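Session log. Operator J.P. requested a structure for one protein chain; no other inputs attached. Running the standard single-chain path with C-alpha coordinate output.
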Amino acid sequence: MDTQELLRTLPKVDRLLEREDIAALATVHPRPLLMDALRDAIEETRDGIRHGYVDSVSEDDVVMRATALLARSSKRSLHRVINATGIVVHTNLGRSPLAESAVEAVAEVARGYSTLEYDVDSGERGSRHVHVEELLKRLTGAEAAMAVNNNAAAVLLGIAGLARGKEAIVSRGQLVEIGGSFRIPDIMRESGAKMVEVGTTNKTHLRDYESALTPETGLLLKVHSSNYRVVGFTEEVALSELVHLGAQNGVPVFEDQGSGVLIDLARFGLPGEPTLAAAVAAGADVVSASGDKLLGGPQAGILVGKWHTIEKLKKHPLARAVRLDKMTLAALEVTLRLYLDEMKLLTELPTLRMLTVPGAELESRATAFAAAITAACGEAYDVRTAPDVSRAGGGALPMVDIPTTVVSVERREGSVVEIEQRLRLGEPTIVARIKDGRLLFDPRTLTLAEEIEIADALARAAREG
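Structure written below.
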Protein backbone atom coordinates (compact mmCIF):
# COMPACT_ATOMS: atom_id res chain seq x y z
CA MET A 1 0.00 0.00 0.00
CA ASP A 2 1.48 3.36 -1.04
CA THR A 3 1.64 6.50 1.10
CA GLN A 4 -1.54 8.09 -0.24
CA GLU A 5 -3.55 4.90 0.27
CA LEU A 6 -2.28 4.62 3.85
CA LEU A 7 -3.19 8.25 4.56
CA ARG A 8 -6.74 7.60 3.32
CA THR A 9 -7.11 4.78 5.86
CA LEU A 10 -6.58 7.11 8.84
CA PRO A 11 -9.68 7.04 11.07
CA LYS A 12 -11.78 10.17 11.59
CA VAL A 13 -12.28 11.65 15.03
CA ASP A 14 -16.07 11.21 14.78
CA ARG A 15 -15.59 7.50 14.11
CA LEU A 16 -13.25 7.08 17.07
CA LEU A 17 -15.74 8.82 19.38
CA GLU A 18 -18.24 6.03 18.67
CA ARG A 19 -15.95 3.37 20.17
CA GLU A 20 -16.77 2.02 23.62
CA ASP A 21 -13.20 2.42 24.92
CA ILE A 22 -13.19 6.07 23.90
CA ALA A 23 -16.60 6.58 25.48
CA ALA A 24 -15.19 5.14 28.69
CA LEU A 25 -12.29 7.61 28.57
CA ALA A 26 -14.78 10.44 28.08
CA THR A 27 -16.31 9.66 31.48
CA VAL A 28 -13.06 10.40 33.35
CA HIS A 29 -11.31 13.00 31.18
CA PRO A 30 -12.48 16.46 30.06
CA ARG A 31 -13.78 16.37 26.50
CA PRO A 32 -11.34 19.06 25.22
CA LEU A 33 -8.36 16.98 26.41
CA LEU A 34 -9.82 13.84 24.86
CA MET A 35 -10.41 15.57 21.52
CA ASP A 36 -6.88 16.97 21.50
CA ALA A 37 -5.42 13.52 22.26
CA LEU A 38 -7.35 11.93 19.39
CA ARG A 39 -6.34 14.62 16.92
CA ASP A 40 -2.70 14.47 18.03
CA ALA A 41 -2.66 10.66 17.76
CA ILE A 42 -4.01 10.85 14.22
CA GLU A 43 -1.50 13.56 13.32
CA GLU A 44 1.43 11.58 14.77
CA THR A 45 0.34 8.53 12.76
CA ARG A 46 0.08 10.72 9.63
CA ASP A 47 3.63 11.97 10.18
CA GLY A 48 4.82 8.39 10.65
CA ILE A 49 3.31 7.41 7.30
CA ARG A 50 4.88 10.37 5.52
CA HIS A 51 8.30 9.64 6.99
CA GLY A 52 8.12 5.93 6.23
CA TYR A 53 8.14 4.39 9.73
CA VAL A 54 4.41 3.54 9.81
CA ASP A 55 3.43 0.97 7.19
CA SER A 56 -0.04 0.02 8.40
CA VAL A 57 -2.91 1.78 10.15
CA SER A 58 -5.47 0.42 12.60
CA GLU A 59 -7.98 2.14 14.83
CA ASP A 60 -6.63 0.22 17.80
CA ASP A 61 -3.12 1.61 17.24
CA VAL A 62 -4.44 5.16 17.02
CA VAL A 63 -6.56 4.71 20.14
CA MET A 64 -3.58 3.27 22.04
CA ARG A 65 -1.49 6.28 21.02
CA ALA A 66 -4.29 8.68 22.04
CA THR A 67 -4.67 6.93 25.39
CA ALA A 68 -0.95 7.35 26.10
CA LEU A 69 -1.07 11.03 25.11
CA LEU A 70 -4.12 11.54 27.31
CA ALA A 71 -2.43 9.91 30.29
CA ARG A 72 0.63 12.10 29.81
CA SER A 73 -1.35 15.34 29.52
CA SER A 74 -3.54 14.45 32.51
CA LYS A 75 -0.63 13.76 34.85
CA ARG A 76 0.34 16.61 37.15
CA SER A 77 3.67 18.11 36.18
CA LEU A 78 4.59 18.79 39.80
CA HIS A 79 4.33 15.51 41.67
CA ARG A 80 5.98 13.36 44.29
CA VAL A 81 9.49 11.96 43.82
CA ILE A 82 11.35 9.32 45.83
CA ASN A 83 14.86 10.70 46.33
CA ALA A 84 17.33 7.81 46.53
CA THR A 85 20.38 9.89 45.60
CA GLY A 86 21.65 10.60 49.11
CA ILE A 87 21.64 14.33 48.33
CA VAL A 88 19.69 15.71 51.28
CA VAL A 89 18.88 19.26 50.15
CA HIS A 90 18.32 18.38 46.49
CA THR A 91 17.54 21.62 44.65
CA ASN A 92 16.09 19.90 41.56
CA LEU A 93 13.80 17.80 43.74
CA GLY A 94 12.43 20.66 45.87
CA ARG A 95 15.19 21.00 48.46
CA SER A 96 14.18 20.28 52.07
CA PRO A 97 11.15 18.07 52.77
CA LEU A 98 8.95 19.54 55.48
CA ALA A 99 8.25 18.12 58.91
CA GLU A 100 4.85 16.44 59.19
CA SER A 101 3.68 19.12 61.62
CA ALA A 102 4.58 21.79 59.06
CA VAL A 103 2.66 19.92 56.34
CA GLU A 104 -0.38 19.77 58.62
CA ALA A 105 -0.11 23.51 59.30
CA VAL A 106 0.01 24.26 55.57
CA ALA A 107 -3.07 22.13 54.93
CA GLU A 108 -4.97 23.82 57.77
CA VAL A 109 -4.44 27.39 56.56
CA ALA A 110 -4.86 26.42 52.89
CA ARG A 111 -8.20 24.76 53.57
CA GLY A 112 -9.90 27.89 54.88
CA TYR A 113 -9.39 31.35 56.31
CA SER A 114 -6.55 32.23 58.69
CA THR A 115 -5.05 34.95 60.89
CA LEU A 116 -2.60 35.98 58.15
CA GLU A 117 -3.11 39.71 58.71
CA TYR A 118 -5.69 39.70 61.51
CA ASP A 119 -5.01 40.54 65.15
CA VAL A 120 -7.43 38.45 67.23
CA ASP A 121 -6.74 40.49 70.38
CA SER A 122 -7.72 43.84 68.87
CA GLY A 123 -10.04 42.57 66.17
CA GLU A 124 -8.20 44.77 63.70
CA ARG A 125 -5.75 44.34 60.85
CA GLY A 126 -2.43 42.84 61.89
CA SER A 127 0.97 42.18 60.30
CA ARG A 128 2.03 38.95 58.63
CA HIS A 129 5.54 39.48 60.05
CA VAL A 130 4.38 38.57 63.57
CA HIS A 131 4.00 34.87 62.76
CA VAL A 132 7.78 34.30 62.60
CA GLU A 133 9.45 37.45 63.95
CA GLU A 134 9.40 36.59 67.67
CA LEU A 135 10.63 33.06 66.95
CA LEU A 136 13.51 34.32 64.81
CA LYS A 137 14.44 36.90 67.46
CA ARG A 138 14.50 34.21 70.14
CA LEU A 139 16.53 31.77 68.05
CA THR A 140 19.10 34.29 66.82
CA GLY A 141 19.22 37.01 69.48
CA ALA A 142 18.30 39.65 66.89
CA GLU A 143 16.39 42.82 67.74
CA ALA A 144 14.02 42.33 64.79
CA ALA A 145 13.33 39.93 61.93
CA MET A 146 11.26 39.39 58.80
CA ALA A 147 10.91 36.77 56.08
CA VAL A 148 10.47 37.06 52.30
CA ASN A 149 9.97 34.56 49.52
CA ASN A 150 13.60 33.41 49.07
CA ASN A 151 17.14 34.39 49.94
CA ALA A 152 17.77 36.05 46.58
CA ALA A 153 14.85 38.36 47.39
CA ALA A 154 16.27 38.94 50.87
CA VAL A 155 19.63 39.99 49.41
CA LEU A 156 17.95 42.22 46.82
CA LEU A 157 15.74 43.86 49.43
CA GLY A 158 18.64 44.32 51.84
CA ILE A 159 20.95 46.00 49.34
CA ALA A 160 18.18 48.10 47.76
CA GLY A 161 16.90 49.20 51.14
CA LEU A 162 20.30 50.18 52.51
CA ALA A 163 22.42 51.23 49.53
CA ARG A 164 20.27 52.22 46.53
CA GLY A 165 22.05 55.09 44.79
CA LYS A 166 25.14 54.53 46.94
CA GLU A 167 28.24 52.34 46.87
CA ALA A 168 28.26 48.81 48.29
CA ILE A 169 31.70 47.36 49.02
CA VAL A 170 32.24 43.61 48.57
CA SER A 171 35.28 41.34 48.30
CA ARG A 172 36.11 39.99 44.82
CA GLY A 173 36.36 36.54 46.36
CA GLN A 174 32.69 36.73 47.39
CA LEU A 175 31.09 37.55 44.03
CA VAL A 176 29.33 34.21 44.01
CA GLU A 177 27.05 32.53 41.51
CA ILE A 178 24.63 29.86 42.67
CA GLY A 179 22.14 27.63 40.83
CA GLY A 180 19.85 29.31 38.33
CA SER A 181 22.56 31.88 37.46
CA PHE A 182 21.91 33.95 40.60
CA ARG A 183 24.93 36.25 40.76
CA ILE A 184 25.78 38.85 43.38
CA PRO A 185 26.86 41.40 40.71
CA ASP A 186 23.48 41.03 38.96
CA ILE A 187 21.57 41.47 42.21
CA MET A 188 23.72 44.48 43.05
CA ARG A 189 22.91 46.09 39.71
CA GLU A 190 19.17 45.45 40.06
CA SER A 191 19.20 46.87 43.59
CA GLY A 192 20.33 50.27 42.33
CA ALA A 193 23.58 50.17 44.31
CA LYS A 194 27.02 50.69 42.77
CA MET A 195 29.23 47.67 43.40
CA VAL A 196 32.76 48.41 44.57
CA GLU A 197 35.07 45.37 44.44
CA VAL A 198 38.02 45.12 46.81
CA GLY A 199 40.84 42.66 47.36
CA THR A 200 41.60 39.69 45.13
CA THR A 201 39.96 36.35 44.47
CA ASN A 202 41.89 34.59 47.23
CA LYS A 203 42.88 37.39 49.63
CA THR A 204 41.07 40.45 50.95
CA HIS A 205 42.36 42.51 53.88
CA LEU A 206 40.67 45.02 56.16
CA ARG A 207 42.80 47.78 54.62
CA ASP A 208 41.16 47.01 51.25
CA TYR A 209 37.77 47.95 52.68
CA GLU A 210 39.22 50.96 54.49
CA SER A 211 40.79 52.39 51.33
CA ALA A 212 37.54 51.93 49.40
CA LEU A 213 35.40 53.92 51.84
CA THR A 214 34.09 57.24 50.50
CA PRO A 215 31.29 59.63 51.48
CA GLU A 216 29.17 57.69 48.94
CA THR A 217 29.61 54.32 50.69
CA GLY A 218 26.24 52.98 51.80
CA LEU A 219 26.99 49.36 52.70
CA LEU A 220 29.68 46.82 53.57
CA LEU A 221 28.56 43.44 52.16
CA LYS A 222 29.96 40.06 53.21
CA VAL A 223 28.85 36.94 51.33
CA HIS A 224 29.49 33.52 52.87
CA SER A 225 30.82 30.98 50.37
CA SER A 226 28.18 28.42 51.23
CA ASN A 227 28.37 26.65 47.86
CA TYR A 228 32.14 26.66 47.20
CA ARG A 229 35.49 26.89 48.95
CA VAL A 230 38.66 28.81 48.15
CA VAL A 231 41.54 26.86 49.68
CA GLY A 232 45.27 27.33 50.00
CA PHE A 233 46.79 30.82 50.14
CA THR A 234 43.62 32.64 51.28
CA GLU A 235 42.44 35.30 53.69
CA GLU A 236 39.18 37.12 54.32
CA VAL A 237 38.07 39.73 56.82
CA ALA A 238 36.13 38.53 59.85
CA LEU A 239 32.61 39.84 60.24
CA SER A 240 33.48 41.41 63.61
CA GLU A 241 36.23 43.47 61.95
CA LEU A 242 33.84 44.69 59.26
CA VAL A 243 31.31 45.62 61.93
CA HIS A 244 33.94 47.65 63.78
CA LEU A 245 34.94 49.41 60.56
CA GLY A 246 31.31 50.10 59.69
CA ALA A 247 30.60 51.52 63.14
CA GLN A 248 33.58 53.87 62.92
CA ASN A 249 32.34 55.25 59.59
CA GLY A 250 28.57 55.09 60.03
CA VAL A 251 28.17 52.38 57.37
CA PRO A 252 25.84 49.38 57.92
CA VAL A 253 27.14 45.82 57.50
CA PHE A 254 25.12 43.12 55.73
CA GLU A 255 26.11 39.44 55.74
CA ASP A 256 24.47 36.95 53.39
CA GLN A 257 24.95 33.53 55.01
CA GLY A 258 23.00 31.56 52.42
CA SER A 259 22.53 28.16 54.03
CA GLY A 260 20.45 29.19 57.05
CA VAL A 261 22.12 27.42 59.98
CA LEU A 262 20.49 27.82 63.40
CA ILE A 263 22.45 25.20 65.38
CA ASP A 264 26.11 24.17 65.58
CA LEU A 265 26.48 21.34 63.05
CA ALA A 266 29.99 20.50 64.29
CA ARG A 267 28.37 18.74 67.26
CA PHE A 268 27.15 16.07 64.86
CA GLY A 269 30.43 15.46 63.08
CA LEU A 270 29.68 17.87 60.23
CA PRO A 271 31.86 20.86 59.32
CA GLY A 272 30.97 23.92 61.32
CA GLU A 273 29.02 26.56 59.42
CA PRO A 274 28.44 30.12 60.67
CA THR A 275 25.09 30.48 62.41
CA LEU A 276 22.65 33.36 62.25
CA ALA A 277 23.07 33.86 66.00
CA ALA A 278 26.85 34.20 65.66
CA ALA A 279 26.47 36.88 62.97
CA VAL A 280 23.96 38.78 65.09
CA ALA A 281 26.27 38.55 68.11
CA ALA A 282 29.13 39.91 65.98
CA GLY A 283 27.05 43.04 65.47
CA ALA A 284 25.92 42.78 61.83
CA ASP A 285 23.16 45.24 61.01
CA VAL A 286 21.34 42.61 58.97
CA VAL A 287 21.94 38.94 58.12
CA SER A 288 20.13 36.93 55.44
CA ALA A 289 19.71 33.19 54.92
CA SER A 290 17.58 30.60 53.14
CA GLY A 291 14.70 28.87 54.88
CA ASP A 292 14.80 25.73 52.72
CA LYS A 293 18.45 24.70 52.93
CA LEU A 294 20.07 23.57 56.18
CA LEU A 295 17.33 25.23 58.20
CA GLY A 296 15.01 22.55 56.80
CA GLY A 297 11.89 24.64 56.15
CA PRO A 298 9.99 25.96 53.14
CA GLN A 299 11.45 28.23 50.46
CA ALA A 300 11.94 31.56 52.20
CA GLY A 301 14.48 34.31 52.74
CA ILE A 302 15.16 35.23 56.36
CA LEU A 303 16.38 38.65 57.46
CA VAL A 304 17.46 39.26 61.07
CA GLY A 305 19.32 42.12 62.64
CA LYS A 306 19.03 45.50 64.29
CA TRP A 307 15.59 46.97 64.85
CA HIS A 308 16.00 50.20 62.89
CA THR A 309 17.48 48.32 59.92
CA ILE A 310 14.78 45.65 59.71
CA GLU A 311 12.03 48.25 60.17
CA LYS A 312 13.47 50.18 57.24
CA LEU A 313 13.36 47.05 55.08
CA LYS A 314 9.79 46.25 56.14
CA LYS A 315 8.69 49.65 54.86
CA HIS A 316 10.57 49.39 51.55
CA PRO A 317 8.32 49.10 48.42
CA LEU A 318 10.04 45.83 47.46
CA ALA A 319 8.93 44.22 50.73
CA ARG A 320 5.37 43.80 49.46
CA ALA A 321 6.54 42.37 46.13
CA VAL A 322 8.58 39.65 47.85
CA ARG A 323 6.37 38.94 50.87
CA LEU A 324 5.46 35.40 51.95
CA ASP A 325 2.08 33.77 51.39
CA LYS A 326 0.05 32.18 54.18
CA MET A 327 1.08 28.60 53.42
CA THR A 328 4.81 29.34 53.47
CA LEU A 329 4.44 31.33 56.68
CA ALA A 330 2.56 28.45 58.29
CA ALA A 331 5.32 25.98 57.36
CA LEU A 332 8.10 28.33 58.43
CA GLU A 333 6.50 29.09 61.81
CA VAL A 334 6.11 25.40 62.68
CA THR A 335 9.66 24.63 61.47
CA LEU A 336 11.10 27.38 63.67
CA ARG A 337 9.10 26.14 66.66
CA LEU A 338 10.81 22.77 66.32
CA TYR A 339 14.13 24.50 67.04
CA LEU A 340 12.88 25.36 70.53
CA ASP A 341 13.12 21.66 71.47
CA GLU A 342 16.31 20.05 70.17
CA MET A 343 15.26 16.47 70.95
CA LYS A 344 12.11 16.93 68.90
CA LEU A 345 14.05 18.83 66.24
CA LEU A 346 16.45 15.99 65.42
CA THR A 347 13.68 13.41 65.17
CA GLU A 348 10.95 15.44 63.44
CA LEU A 349 12.80 17.74 61.03
CA PRO A 350 13.68 15.59 57.98
CA THR A 351 16.72 17.60 56.82
CA LEU A 352 18.56 17.48 60.14
CA ARG A 353 17.46 13.91 60.81
CA MET A 354 18.92 12.77 57.49
CA LEU A 355 22.13 14.74 57.92
CA THR A 356 22.76 13.39 61.43
CA VAL A 357 21.65 9.74 61.16
CA PRO A 358 24.40 7.48 62.57
CA GLY A 359 26.53 5.48 60.15
CA ALA A 360 25.75 2.20 61.92
CA GLU A 361 22.04 2.77 61.44
CA LEU A 362 22.52 3.41 57.72
CA GLU A 363 24.57 0.23 57.35
CA SER A 364 21.87 -1.80 59.09
CA ARG A 365 19.13 -0.26 56.97
CA ALA A 366 21.08 -0.87 53.76
CA THR A 367 21.46 -4.54 54.64
CA ALA A 368 17.72 -4.92 55.27
CA PHE A 369 16.91 -2.91 52.13
CA ALA A 370 19.13 -5.16 49.98
CA ALA A 371 17.43 -8.24 51.40
CA ALA A 372 14.00 -6.76 50.61
CA ILE A 373 15.02 -6.15 46.97
CA THR A 374 16.30 -9.72 46.61
CA ALA A 375 13.10 -11.09 48.14
CA ALA A 376 10.96 -9.05 45.74
CA CYS A 377 13.02 -9.58 42.60
CA GLY A 378 14.57 -13.03 42.96
CA GLU A 379 17.68 -13.48 40.84
CA ALA A 380 16.91 -10.63 38.41
CA TYR A 381 19.53 -8.39 39.98
CA ASP A 382 22.93 -8.60 41.59
CA VAL A 383 22.27 -6.74 44.86
CA ARG A 384 25.03 -5.65 47.23
CA THR A 385 25.74 -3.06 49.90
CA ALA A 386 28.77 -0.81 49.68
CA PRO A 387 30.32 2.19 51.46
CA ASP A 388 29.78 5.47 49.66
CA VAL A 389 29.19 9.16 50.39
CA SER A 390 26.12 11.36 50.71
CA ARG A 391 25.99 15.10 50.10
CA ALA A 392 24.26 17.94 51.90
CA GLY A 393 23.29 19.51 48.57
CA GLY A 394 21.52 22.79 47.91
CA GLY A 395 24.81 24.67 47.77
CA ALA A 396 25.50 23.83 51.42
CA LEU A 397 28.58 22.15 52.92
CA PRO A 398 30.49 22.00 49.61
CA MET A 399 33.25 19.41 49.21
CA VAL A 400 31.99 17.54 52.28
CA ASP A 401 31.73 13.74 51.91
CA ILE A 402 29.24 12.36 54.44
CA PRO A 403 29.90 8.61 54.89
CA THR A 404 26.98 6.30 54.11
CA THR A 405 26.16 2.74 53.04
CA VAL A 406 24.30 2.34 49.75
CA VAL A 407 22.44 -0.52 48.12
CA SER A 408 24.11 -1.25 44.79
CA VAL A 409 22.02 -2.95 42.06
CA GLU A 410 23.03 -4.37 38.68
CA ARG A 411 20.72 -6.09 36.19
CA ARG A 412 21.99 -9.58 35.40
CA GLU A 413 20.59 -9.21 31.87
CA GLY A 414 20.04 -5.81 30.30
CA SER A 415 21.19 -2.26 30.83
CA VAL A 416 21.29 -0.43 34.14
CA VAL A 417 20.47 2.74 32.18
CA GLU A 418 17.20 1.17 31.09
CA ILE A 419 16.31 0.28 34.68
CA GLU A 420 17.13 3.81 35.84
CA GLN A 421 14.87 5.21 33.11
CA ARG A 422 12.01 2.88 34.02
CA LEU A 423 12.21 3.96 37.66
CA ARG A 424 12.45 7.64 36.72
CA LEU A 425 9.44 7.48 34.39
CA GLY A 426 7.39 5.21 36.65
CA GLU A 427 4.75 5.96 39.23
CA PRO A 428 6.00 7.20 41.61
CA THR A 429 9.11 8.76 40.08
CA ILE A 430 12.25 7.26 41.64
CA VAL A 431 15.54 9.13 41.22
CA ALA A 432 18.76 7.22 41.95
CA ARG A 433 22.45 7.44 40.97
CA ILE A 434 24.45 5.41 38.48
CA LYS A 435 28.07 4.71 39.39
CA ASP A 436 30.46 2.24 37.74
CA GLY A 437 27.62 0.59 35.86
CA ARG A 438 25.49 -0.01 38.94
CA LEU A 439 22.38 1.72 40.28
CA LEU A 440 22.85 3.13 43.78
CA PHE A 441 20.14 3.72 46.39
CA ASP A 442 21.15 5.68 49.50
CA PRO A 443 18.94 4.99 52.54
CA ARG A 444 19.96 8.35 54.04
CA THR A 445 17.30 10.14 51.98
CA LEU A 446 14.71 7.36 52.07
CA THR A 447 11.97 6.32 54.46
CA LEU A 448 11.30 2.65 55.17
CA ALA A 449 8.04 2.90 53.22
CA GLU A 450 9.92 4.31 50.22
CA GLU A 451 12.40 1.44 50.33
CA ILE A 452 9.47 -0.97 49.93
CA GLU A 453 8.19 1.06 46.97
CA ILE A 454 11.61 0.88 45.33
CA ALA A 455 11.79 -2.91 45.79
CA ASP A 456 8.35 -3.26 44.19
CA ALA A 457 9.30 -0.94 41.32
CA LEU A 458 12.46 -2.94 40.66
CA ALA A 459 10.39 -6.13 40.58
CA ARG A 460 8.00 -4.58 38.02
CA ALA A 461 10.95 -3.40 35.92
CA ALA A 462 12.40 -6.93 35.94
CA ARG A 463 9.10 -8.43 34.81
CA GLU A 464 8.59 -5.83 32.07
CA GLY A 465 12.18 -6.20 30.92
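Operator note: The mean pLDDT is 91.
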